[in-house]
Specification:
Number of helices: 8
Oligomer: single chain
Number of domains: 2
Strand order of the largest sheet: 6-7-8-3-9-10
CATH topology of the largest domain: Rossmann fold
Largest sheet: 6 strands, mixed
CATH architecture of the largest domain: 3-Layer(aba) Sandwich
Helix content: 25-40%
Structural class: alpha/beta
Radius of gyration: 19 Å
Strand content: 15-25%
CATH class of the largest domain: Alpha Beta
CATH superfamily of the largest domain: P-loop containing nucleotide triphosphate hydrolases
Length: 263
């Protein structure tokens, strides 16, 4: 699915964020990315979304070099990224409007995109109900809660059927019950759809709950650690010995100075 080879990236007048970094993501895999501040977690997502360009090395997605943003890649940000002047429904249908404007050009829309307003309207209605925000469709972002805004952002992204979903600390500003609810929702949606998912987080507990594999970024990528987390979707995993053992292992790798975010 994704192949990163010898990736190098550096901000001006700063040490390299990545230096000869290699990483592979398989089809439909779920990854959590941890690391201390400045380790490159968000930069990595921006590189995968082609919002930033690597200084060296290569990024390939489905065997094709990444040279510009892909219409098949979805990005969900911490601040939701909703249009403040648009209703919940208008925000969710934004992707359809953009693709209809550009048509199936292979750059802004997939080459197989076929506009059917009747089908789109039905899908929008279904996703609003699926996300529990159907009754809020005519409200504006400032009129709904943070959790409802994030549900809107998730609906807007997944309605486009991405094959790669990038999530940049999407739940960090939410209260604990809302965060848990959205974590469970995203996991449940992944069971029913085929796409690869990468979530960046500062919470070790969230990393364990959200990813079958965990990437711990260190040392410009060259000292990074990859851990398997095969039981992450099991019922009551968070009280299992496997969870506790992996939690302790990650704590030991990151050290006591890691800036943890509590759930």
């Amino acid at each position: 699915m994704v192949e990163i080879k010898n990736l190098t990236f550096q901000y001006n007048n700063h040490p390299p964020v990545f230096k000869n970094f290699n990483w592979r993501i398989g089809e439909n895999e779920t990854w959590s990315v941890l690391g201390s501040s400045g380790s490159g977690k968000t930069t990595l997502l921006h590189l995968l979304a082609s919002l930033k360009r690597a200084d060296g090395g290569s990024i390939e997605i489905k065997g094709k070099s990444l040279l510009r943003p892909r219409p098949e890649t979805g990005l969900i940000m911490q601040n939701h990224g909703l249009l403040p002047w648009a209703t919940v429904q208008k925000n969710v249908e934004l992707g359809f409007n953009i693709r209809r404007f550009y048509r199936a050009d292979g750059k802004h829309s997939p080459v197989d995109f076929n506009s059917d307003k009747k089908t789109e309207k039905k899908q929008i209605s279904l996703w609003l109900e699926k996300m529990g925000i159907g009754e809020l469709k005519d409200r504006y972002p400032h009129e709904i809660s943070g959790g409802q805004q994030q549900r809107t952002a998730i609906a807007r992204t997944l309605i486009m059927h991405p094959d790669l979903l990038l999530m940049d600390e999407p739940f960090s500003s939410l209260d604990s019950p809302t965060r848990k609810s959205l974590q469970e929702l995203v996991i449940d949606l992944h069971r029913k759809k085929e796409y690869s998912r990468i979530i960046v987080t500062h919470s070790i507990e969230e990393a364990l709950i959200m990813g079958s594999k965990i990437l711990i970024l260190q040392g410009g990528g060259k000292d990074s650690v990859i851990l398997d987390n095969p039981d992450y979707m099991q019922k009551e995993y968070f009280i299992s010995p496997a969870y506790e053992a992996l939690l302790n292992k990650i704590n030991n790798i990151l050290g006591e100075n890691f800036e943890k975010e509590e759930l």
